[in-house]
Amino acid sequence: xxxxxxxxSKSSKRESLSPPPTEINPYAVLNVSNTATEADIRSAYRKLxxxxxxxxxxxxxNDAHAKFQEIAFAYAILGDEKRRxxxxxxxxxxxxxxxxxxxxxxxxxxxxxxxxxxxxxxxxQKYQGIILIPQRRV
Length: 138
Prior knowledge:
There is one protein chain. With 138 residues, this protein is mostly helical. Helix content is 53%, strand content 0%. It has helices spanning 10-13, 26-30, 38-52, 61-78, 81-90, 103-111, 117-128.
């Protein structure tokens, strides 16, 4: 039976990834305005990532690691056009699993064929006691 090495494996050396933060303002984290361009966002991210990289803070590595992950998460939101639009529209950091959800389309499909000229005539006839002669279609 071969002897096992006492050296730690690469997987045990890896830092554990924390879950993404749920209560941040990515614009405030990166210190950019909501009108910032892609280049502004990328530049702010690179500057802060270098400043807060855990290797540069050996005495406060846990704090730096948390800040670094927050910066990376903010950049993941603002650096992606769809995610940024979603955040700007909803203020939510949650991901949509099945792609973009179109509420307008959902409501339109839900009410399709529910309200039409025919249903209005039927309603009028039933609740007002008016007998309407069906219109001929030409």
